[in-house]
Design goal:
about 325 residues, alpha+beta, Phosphorylase Kinase, domain 1, Aminoglycoside 3'-phosphotransferase, Chain: A, domain 2, 5-stranded antiparallel beta sheet, 11 helices, about 45% helix
Length: about 325
């Protein structure tokens, strides 16, 4: 597989960078179950340019397959977000049928850290951590202002709740906290709002953070859709994306007020904290159901990756988050 990708990229080198002659340092990076991520450099007389290849070798992700957009759509969203002023890894090339890469696109490589636990604990990020939540709010305001005619689905609160309850019921699981959360959220749902473009998976772990600049790029646009701005604002607040820093609800590095102040400063419409908390509860519930399904895929033999049961154990984190939110008056 590596030889095939190397050959395909080598043929593309002149189109990827001005004066590009050869591909160097091709290496597979860690990635999700559905996508391959490869780092490489294009070299020539003009110098060296670092790039990232993102390709889908097989089917869409199991845990949210119906929401995973094509890489062509993802590329269009990156272009739209970049045009609106959001920090992204700029698109270099969308692979075509004759490129030999399958469904794929190539972006520039952005320096920084993506591992959430390092971002919230590594001393080298101490200087930027206090500003990250506000940065995230401003970035989301920019994303939500972007215009696109990409073929995306529209999601609303009750529809999403119904969809995940159906998955939960079909699983046969019996988790008292999840049962209570489904019933509670049916009675405490926010009123609909005008949908905007959402990233769909905006969280610590899908951000490149530079130790001097803060958020340098937003990654992984495959779950983008139209919906309530509070959905994006809340997802980064789910307990599982705090990486052990539960006292800092925004990604393990900041507070709600900073996130919402940044959103307002970035031009976003007013979003009440109560609405963010409603969507945060739904986000925790959704992730809990996904964790259950990932464990089930391993237990039934459908998946052999040890990553599946490891993630499956994290359903307890979502239950803690749900209990905390409901006890605090959600």
């Amino acid at each position: 597989m590596e030889d095939t990708i190397f050959s395909s990229l080598s043929r593309l080198a002149p189109r990827l960078a001005e004066g590009g002659e050869r591909i160097e340092d091709l290496q597979r990076l860690s990635g999700g179950a559905s996508m391959e991520t490869w780092a490489f450099a294009v070299e020539g007389p003009g110098g060296r340019e670092e790039m990232i290849l993102r390709r889908r070798p097989g089917g869409p992700i199991y845990e949210d397959a119906s929401r995973s957009v094509s890489l062509a759509t993802e590329a269009a969203l990156i272009v739209a977000a970049h045009g609106a002023g959001a920090p992204v890894a700029p698109l270099v090339h969308l692979a075509g049928p004759d490129d030999g890469l399958g469904e794929a696109h190539i972006t520039r490589r952005i320096d920084g850290e993506t591992l959430g636990r390092k971002i919230v604990t590594d001393p080298k990020f101490e200087a930027v951590r206090p500003s990250l939540a506000r940065q995230c709010g401003a970035i989301l305001a920019t994303i939500h202002s972007a215009k696109t005619d990409a073929p995306l689905k529209t999601v609303d609160f009750l529809g999403e709740l119904e969809r995940y309850e159906a998955v939960y019921r079909q699983s046969g699981a019996e988790r008292p906290i999840l049962e209570l959360a489904f019933q509670h959220l049916k009675k405490h749902s926010p009123p609909p709002v005008e949908p905007v473009l959402l990233h769909g998976d905006f969280r610590n772990g899908n951000l490149i953070v530079d130790p001097k600049l803060g958020v340098a790029a937003v990654l992984d646009w495959e779950l983008s859709h139209f919906g309530d701005p509070a959905e994006d604002l809340s997802w980064i607040c789910v307990n599982s994306w705090r990486f052990g820093k539960a006292e800092l609800p925004v990604g393990g590095f900041g507070h709600y007020a900073d996130l919402l102040d940044g959103y307002a400063a970035g031009g976003g419409a007013e979003v009440p904290l109560s609405r963010v908390l409603q969507w945060q509860a739904l986000g925790s519930l959704k992730w809990g159901v996904m964790c259950l399904m990932m464990y089930a895929s391993y237990a039934t033999g459908a998946e052999s990756s040890v990553e599946r049961p490891m993630i499956g154990r994290r359903v307890s984190e979502t239950e803690i988050d749900l209990v905390t939110l409901m006890e605090n008056g959600l």
